[in-house]
Design a protein that fits this description.
about 140 residues, alpha+beta, 2,3-Dihydroxybiphenyl 1,2-Dioxygenase, domain 1, eight-stranded mixed sheet, about 15% helix
Length: about 140
C-alpha cells in the first residue's frame, strides 16, 4: 500500500500564511530561498531527520501559487517504491503525468500527476533512509 506522506498547499502571501499556521496550530515553518521557489516547509508534528515520529502523521509544505508551475489547490504526496513503475501504473489507470520526475535533494525523486478526476497530486520515491517509505504488501 502507498501512504500519503506529505501535503502541499498554495499561498499568496508567505509571511501572512506563516503567521496564521504558527498562531492557529503552532506549526513550525522553514522558509526556503528563491533557488527553491520560496517554498515553505511546514512541520506539523514531532519529527526527526526521517520525518514524523508518530505513525500516521504527516508534514507538508506551501508554494507560491503565482509561480508558473504552481498548484492552485491543496494536494497530497504519495510515497512509492519505484517512481518509474508508478508512473506507468498512473498512466495505465487513466492519469496524466505532468512534466518529468525531479530529484529533491535529501528527500528523493518526485513527479506530479493528474488523476482521472482532475486532481493534481504527486508521487515520491523517498531515499532509502527515509521512514516514509511504503510498506511492501
Amino acid at each position: 500500500m502507498n501512504p500519503v506522506v506529505h501535503f502541499e498547499m498554495p499561498y499568496e502571501n508567505r509571511e501572512r500564511m506563516v503567521k496564521f499556521y504558527q498562531s492557529a496550530f503552532s506549526w513550525q515553518t522553514q522558509l526556503l530561498g528563491e533557488e527553491m521557489g520560496n517554498y515553505v516547509i511546514a512541520t506539523t508534528t514531532e519529527s526527526d531527520e526521517n520525518g514524523p515520529k508518530e505513525l500516521g502523521c504527516i508534514n507538508g509544505g506551501f508554494s507560491n501559487k503565482r509561480l508558473p508551475d504552481a498548484n492552485a489547490h491543496p494536494s497530497f504526496v504519495i510515497a512509492v517504491d519505484d517512481i518509474k513503475e508508478s508512473i506507468k501504473k498512473i498512466t495505465n489507470a487513466g492519469g496524466k503525468i505532468l512534466g518529468k520526475s525531479m530529484d529533491i535533494p535529501g528527500v528523493g525523486v518526485s513527479a506530479w500527476f493528474v488523476d482521472t478526476e482532475g486532481n493534481r497530486l504527486s508521487i515520491l520515491q523517498p531515499l532509502p533512509n527515509m521512514s516514509v517509505r511504503p510498506k511492501s504488501e
